[in-house]
Structures are given as C-alpha cells and as structure tokens.
Amino acid sequence: MEHLDTLSTMLEQQADKSKAIGMEKYMKDNFMYLGVSSVPRKVIFRQWKSLLPKDLSAIQRWDVVRELWEKEAREYQYIAVDWVNSWPNSWIIASDIYEIKFILENKSWWDSVDLLASNILGKYAKKFPKEMDMVIKSWQDESSIWLHRSCLIYQLKYKETVDLDRLSYLIACYKSNKTFFIQKAIGWSLREVSKWNPDWVRKTVGFHELKGLAHREAMKYVK
Hints:
The protein is an all-alpha fold.
C-alpha cells in the first residue's frame, strides 16, 4: 500500500482537469481520468516501478495489479498494464491466466485489452501452448467480446511464427459476430500477417467470405 500511496501522490501532482475532460470524452465517458497524459505517465511509471521490491511473489504482484484495477481513475489501469506487460518471461506462470482473464474482462475497453492481449497474453501463449489451447476453447463459451477479441489478436507480434491454422480457426469461430471490435480484430490480425504472407491472407479472406470492416482491414496492404 505504501507504494500505491506513492504512485497516487505522483499522479495527483501531474493531474490536469482540463486534459481529463478531453480524455474522458475521447474514451466515450467510460472512465474517469485525472488528466495525466502519456509522456508524464510513462515517466511516473518508470519511477514507481523502480521503487517496487524486487522479490515480490506472483501472488503479491497480482495483488498490486488488483489494487490498481480497483482504482477509479483510468491512469491506474494504464500503469498496471505497463507493468504487467514489462514482466520478463521468467515471471510468467501457468496460473497467471486467471488473473490475465480478470483484467481483460473487467474495466474493459480497447485501450487496455489490445495492449494486454498482444503482450502479456501473447507471452503466456508462447510459454504455455498447451494451456493456451484450453484457454481458447474455454473462452469461446464466454460472452465477453473482449476475451474473443483477445483470442484474435494475441498473435499480433508473432510475425512469421503466427499459427495460421489457429488464426483461421478463430476467424471461423467469430466472423459471424458483427460487433465492430470483433470485425476490426479479424481484419487487424490478417493485416499483420499480410505483411509477410499476403497470398495466405488473400486466400483466407476469400475462404471465409469476409466483408465490410474485416475485409477492408485485412486487404489494406494486399495488392
């Protein structure tokens, strides 16, 4: 709690109510903001991170994340996201998926979900591929579009190591969901693959008969 109090003090010192109004409007009033913009927030994060004990256990680390997630101001969740995504692979354990799931489906919006899915979830999937198989199957039964979006984009940074069969399977699972965030995720995941395998993307778009937003995003770089 001492370190969280320190973080609160640091954020409050940089708070700007005039900026907060614009930030809240941009995020469609889903969250309350202190008005700490990205650059000073990143500086605060690095300073705060350096103060944390180096020997925190996995349980203690997630306790800190939970505390940050319970805070009202959105900047606290941004700090939590930056910290979780900075964890080395050696810190990631199989049971982390339960906590990852929690922060993906609570206080969810694209600003947190996209960073978490393409970073910590992507790292988890590479380290624990068998567990990730079960996660993908389990999350299909969930109603959260954010978990579904996470499945579609967790491989965004994999480049040539993307499991194309899995991606095609996931597209088949979710393409009937016309929600903006799902269609965008389908197109985004394919767009990244098109940077190194445009032929596969062209064939996949045709096979799944993708249209609209998903089609436009997927074919953005495909001639």
